[in-house]
Amino acid sequence: MKSDSRLIAILEIGSTGIRLLVAEIFEAGEWLVLDRADKSVALGRDVFISGRISRESFLECLAVLKNFQELLRGWEIAPRDVHVIATSALRIARNRDVFVDRVLRETGYLLNVVEGIEENRLMYLAVRYALKNDLPQFWRANSMIVEVGGGSTEIMLLRRGKMVAAHSLNLGTIFIDQQSRVVMGSTRFQERFLNENVRNTSEFLSSEMDLAHVRTFVVAGSDVRFAAEETGAVFNPNCRIISRDAFISFAERVKNCSADELVRNHRIPFADAEGFSLGIMVYRLFLERTAAAQVIVPSISIREGLLIDLTRGVEAALQEEFFSQVIASAVNLGRKFHYDETHNRHVADLCMAIFDALVYEHGLLRRERMMLEVAAILHDVGMFIQSSDHHKHGRYIVANSEIFGLHRDELNIIANVISYHRGPPPDPSDIDYIALQREERILVLKMASILRVADALDRGHSQHIKNITVEKKGEILVLHSPGNYDFSLEHRGLEEKADMFQDVFGYKVVLT
Q1: N or C: which terminus of the chain carries fewer CB neighbours within 10 A?
Q2: How far apart are the two ends of the chain, measured CA to CA in Å?
């Protein structure tokens, strides 16, 4: 190992197995995968049947983690450099907190159970890294990214390279197998059950972006990587391509294969063989609803996505692109509720100007800037329900929606910011606000204060104030705006809404 590098390990606890990745990270932000290992576990079978992790699976997972711990000691990787994540099975397990605590006590590993939307984020980072700039149509045409796992299916829709929607669906291979047994009484009807579920899902997705217009179909996951190795062609060092017809033909060949036949005829590891055909069938059914002529198969996973995330300082351009996708997803959520896009985007621009002028005062980072922009873009989304109390309706909509790239905790913060963009300041009786951590409540106050001022500057929804320059004069924040417009409405708006800003930052706001 070089002196300017360090070793890290990523452990992923999935529905069907525990997978390890060891990588060397260099100061320049580059990284190199040194080792991989995986071990099958029956975690998903437990959880999707009973809703709990059984004692046997508890012990099996702990034994695997301890074996990997011995391997990592050989690599001399410090415990702080071991990142452990868990996906769908742990997300829905009723006794997951006990499992997380047991892992911490017996291995010292702090286990992070990632949300479905976080899986989407990590997968997007990995896919984008794998594609690089070698696939121009990804940015010019409508695209769909799909990953089928044991417990869930992650789907992202992009319109000309911009995120439209991201969803985590209960459509994993183990889940499908169990549900088809319950609903149909036998696995003989799995194809019919799956067809109905994919059809219903596709109708829902097409309400956001017509799947018939999808030209680029990107799929991730170990199942489809085996198919790509058998029938695909190398596209770049991190991707393979399978023609549409070749993929459908492969799916037809393996549709009725047993696990033993898949192992014998297609060299698929037995641990992956059980749900292999179901996973391929899901990909095929979605593919057939698109106009894609080929299937793009990156040879990466969310483990590489996390690895990219850990080197975000050097992947600055990729991170900025990622933030733009978060904003695009927020815009599409607003459009779904027929919001006033011109006003909301204008208020967001004003927010960014004030935020950038007060970097020292608020002490917030780039990600918080993006969160404020999302809040500004969606601050009036509650108008869809009712004009009066639209700030409260907006909080409900955002808190119960999915925005690509945002954790549930971040959505709750943004929802609270929207709630306080008008009306009285936070009150101790507000349960949603008090439920936040202290640091989160301070963040809400800072962002809501800026949003209130920016919203007041477009009180009449006329966008008279096109640009502002910010000047600090003692305890006064002077906002200069060019033009000879009558700012009476804006001055009145500041009188009503700038009080929280003065309380939080100590500046009286003046518009000239």
Answers
A1: C
A2: 59
Q: For residue 128, which of 298, 243, 293 has the smallest C-alpha distance?
A: 298
pLDDT exceeds cutoff 60 at 248: yes
Higher pLDDT, 470 or 486: 470
The total number of residues written for the chain in this structure? 512
28 and 152 in a single domain? The answer is no
The partner residues of 296 in beta bridges, in order of sequence, read 218, 241
Tally of domains within the chain: 3
Q: Give residue 194's pLDDT band: very low, low, confident or very high (50, 70, 90).
A: confident
What pLDDT shows up at residue 46? 86
Q: Residue 280: which of 261, 315, 256, 308 has the closest Cα?
A: 256
More confident residue, 484 or 472: 472
For residue 71, pLDDT over 70 is answered with: yes
Over pLDDT 70: what percentage of the chain? 96
Contacts of 188 (CB under 8 A, 6+ apart): none
Residue with tokens 């954790």: 407
Domain with residue 443: its CATH number is 1.10.3210.10
How many degrees, rounded to 5, is the angle at CA 58 between CA 57 and CA 60?
Answer: 60
Are 495 and 362 contained in the same domain?
Answer: yes
Q: From 307, 132, 127, select the one nearest 224 (Cα to Cα).
A: 127
Residue 431's contacts (CB-CB under 8 Å, 6 or more residues apart) are: none
The average pLDDT across 121-145 equals 91
The contacts of residue 36 (CB under 8 Å, 6+ apart) are 19, 20, 21, 22
Maximum separation of any 2 CA atoms in the chain, in Å: 79
**231/249 same-domain check:** yes
Q: What is the pLDDT of residues 401-452, one digit of tens each?
A: 999 999 889 999 999 999 999 999 888 888 999 999 999 999 999 999 999 9
Question: In terms of domains, do 217 and 300 share one?
Answer: yes
Contacts for 365-368 with beta carbons within 8 Å, 24 or more apart?
366/319, 366/323, 367/323, 368/443, 368/447
Burial of 309-346, coded b for 16+ CB within 10 Å and e otherwise, reads bbbeebbeebbeebbebbbbbbbbbbebbebeeebbbb
Order of strands, edge to edge, in the sheet holding 294-298?
162-169, 153-159, 142-148, 214-220, 294-298, 239-243, 233-236
CA distances from 501 to 260, 266, 421, 496 (A): 67, 64, 11, 11
Judge if 279 and 168 occupy the same domain: yes
Sign of torsion over alpha carbons 156, 158, 163, 164: negative
Q: Is the pLDDT of residue 314 over 50?
A: no
